[in-house]
Amino acid sequence: MKHPAAQTPRLLVQAAAVAVAVFGLGLASIASAQDSEADDLEDVKRSSSGSRTAAGASERGRQRKQENAEKAPALYPLATRKDPGLKATNKGGKALREIVAAFDAKKGDEAVAKAEALIADPAANGYDKAFAHQVAASVEADREPPNYAKAIEHYKQAVAADALDNNGHYQMLYNLAVMQGQADQYAEALASLDRFLNETKSDKPEAVGFKAYLLSQLERPAEAAALYEQILAKNPDDKATLMNAVSLFQQAGNDKRVSELLATARQKNMLTTDSEYRTLYVPLINGGKLKEAVELIDEGIAKGAIKPSQKLANDLSVIAQTYYAEENTPKAIEMFKRAAAASENGEAALNLARVLRNENRIAEAKQAAQDALNKGVKKPEDARKILALPGK
Predict the structure, then answer these.
(1) Mean pLDDT over residues 198-227, rounded?
(2) Mean pLDDT over residues 284-289, rounded?
(3) What gap in Å lies between CA 158 and CA 25, rounded to an integer?
(4) Which of 218, 306, 333, 371 could staple 300 via S-S, CB 3.0–4.6 A?
(5) Is 80 exposed, middle or buried (0-12, 13-18, 19+ CB in 10 A)?
(6) pLDDT tier, 391 (very low <50, low <70, confident <90, very high otherwise)
(7) Residues 300, 303, 304, CA angle at the centre, nearest 5°?
(8) What are the φ/ψ torsions at residue 277 (nearest 5 degrees)?
(9) How far is CA 249 from each of CA 221, 223, 355, rounded to the nearest angstrom?
(10) 259: pLDDT confidence band, cut at 50, 70 and 90?
């Protein structure tokens, strides 16, 4: 069981840190039959001054468009979904360009109004509507404060339309999970993210880390910690991931794994804060391994990670009391002196004075008692009694 004084390292991954996929990735995919005709016409015009035929020009136009489409890399090459290959209608393509122009001009309300008009148009196809939902979702997500309900609904509709290419479709599904997570809809976000992971076969660290975060919010720390270990296996020097795993294993009560991970972090010189060192040395104090605990504290002090504080003073006092109970008085005195020097109050100094008095080192006891009074103690009368003792 974790010592009451042990401090859990802060969980580093936050929902807000998971970025919504960049909207601009979808803009280049607005294409319509009108665009196709224009490309073919341009090739026909060029052929009039040479030996190329209109049929050949048309084929070259088709090949060029295919080459342009292939320039966009598949973000999810292992996806189980077959790309529907849909494009905007002529009318829809024109409307979408106007919607995107309004979005780029930061005219959010205008972009949403135009998007909703296109969505309601019976002549619009699935691609038109999915792309319009994408723009509207982006506007709602970017508002201050974000309109989570509307953003989530638009992302849901963009996914349900099942009309975007795989890049766009799965970015919308991922964005849906992000918005649900930011709206504290953790179970729903996990369901959306699981669908994303299952269908794309993606193992990108940011997606796996996001799932770990959602699991932690659903109080499933052991599962979340296991996911962070997956990420850590691929990038063993990632301190943020390691400390997230430490935090979650602590929540799961797996102190053995916590100690192992922190020992690894120590070997790699990753420990840089007092809380990280403390999470490693407190179990040693609890287990009576005082020498090892002090070595860790000294290492942290030497590196500048551990600085004088009341927290450090309290820990050193616990070590001193344990040494005193074991009748190792010299070590107890040494630790009480260190605790008194780090302390913001006089309690450690007063305990030092009591031990020195019991050892009949009256002059030193009186000095410690005076130090205790100078810093302030709960029972100043105890310090005064030591000061009133005969002798020097």
Answers:
(1) 95
(2) 92
(3) 15
(4) 306
(5) exposed
(6) confident
(7) 85
(8) -65, -40
(9) 7, 9, 39
(10) confident
Model confidence at 157: pLDDT above 60: yes
> pLDDT class for 352, splitting at 50, 70, 90?
very high
Residues 166, 76: contact at Cβ < 8 Å? yes
Measure the CA–CA gap between 147 and 142, rounded to whole angstroms.
Answer: 8
Cα separation of 273 and 8, whole Å?
Answer: 12
- Give the pLDDT confidence of 361-373 residue by residue, as tens digits: 999 999 999 999 9
pTM for this predicted structure: 0.69
Query: Hey, what amino acid is at 391?
Result: G
Placement of tokens 């780090």 in the chain:
342
CB within 8 Å of 360: residues ≥ 6 apart: none
- 316, burial (CB in 10 Å: exposed 0-12, middle 13-18, buried 19+): buried
d(CA 361, CA 372): 16
How many other β-carbons are positioned within 10 Å of the β-carbon of residue 193?
24
* Helix/strand number for the chain, H first, E second: 20, 0
Cβ pair 81, 62 in contact under 8 A: no
Report residue 171 as tokens.
């970015």
CATH superfamily of 308-392: Tetratricopeptide repeat domain (1.25.40.10)
